[in-house]
Design brief:
The chain is α/β, with parallel strands linked by helices and 214 residues long. 50% of the residues lie in helices and 11% in strands. The chain has helices at 18-29, 37-46, 50-56, 64-68, 89-106, 116-122, 137-148, 153-175, 196-209, and strands at residues 7-12, 33-34, 109-112, 128-134, 187-190.
């Protein structure tokens, strides 16, 4: 198999270092990296203001009934609306999903977050490796303080818990899956005792093991 068709998605606990890992991995492989760049790309494609995508970024929608019955998985099939309530969380997710699928069809890349694993799985993407990077609470707090410049441990923990809850609810709402269910991923990585460069090396080793030439 050839890396020209390979897409790697990375879901990550806040503070685990997953975003940094994604960027480093893309650089090592010589392929594009997409994180919040997807928001501006989606805004341009949809002609919907980027601020709407940023406000909804990795946050669950507000349809309580759909939350109760277990997510939006089947409701996310189909094209987004271009008239009416185009800025609903569901429609913004559909716009974003279109961009993710287009990127994956055109090039090898690393995509971080935004349920890209589910979006591409549902589209039948074959050359797909789904990563989940997580770490213990102490490690996440330490990395949050380092990266975000937070000096108070309680403040870092509060931010960590808030964003973790948002991502968990977002994933459940739009996919019907549990975000932290390691069975949803090809390679879950506990980064608690690893340097981020070691995590990158581990992912590259896995990619080779499953038959890709990199």
């Amino acid at each position: 198999m050839d890396k020209d068709k390979l897409v790697i998605t990375i879901e990550r606990q806040y503070g685990s270092g997953g975003r940094i890992v994604g960027r480093k991995l893309a650089k090592c492989l010589g392929i594009p990296f997409y994180d919040d760049e997807i928001l501006s790309m989606t805004a341009e494609k949809s002609a919907v203001g980027e601020q709407y995508f940023r406000l909804a970024d990795e946050k669950a929608g507000n349809n309580l009934l759909r939350k109760i019955v277990g997510g939006m998985r089947h409701g996310m099939v189909g094209a987004p609306k271009i008239q009416g309530d185009v800025t609903s969380p569901e429609n913004l997710f559909k716009f974003q999903s279109e961009v993710i699928r287009e990127l994956a069809s055109k090039e090898s890349c690393v995509i971080v977050g935004r349920c890209a694993d589910f979006v591409l799985d549902s589209a039948g993407k074959e050359d797909l490796i789904k990563i989940f990077v997580y770490a213990d609470t102490d490690t996440c707090i330490r990395r949050t303080m380092e990266v975000d410049g937070i000096v108070d441990t309680k403040e870092a923990l509060s931010k960590l818990n808030r964003i973790t809850k948002q991502r968990r609810e977002y994933h459940r709402y739009f996919t019907g899956r549990e975000w932290e269910d390691l069975g949803n991923y090809d390679l879950p990585i506990n980064a608690s005792r690893l340097e981020l460069d070691q995590v990158v090396e581990l992912i590259q080793a896995y990619i080779r093991m499953v038959g890709y030439e990199i």
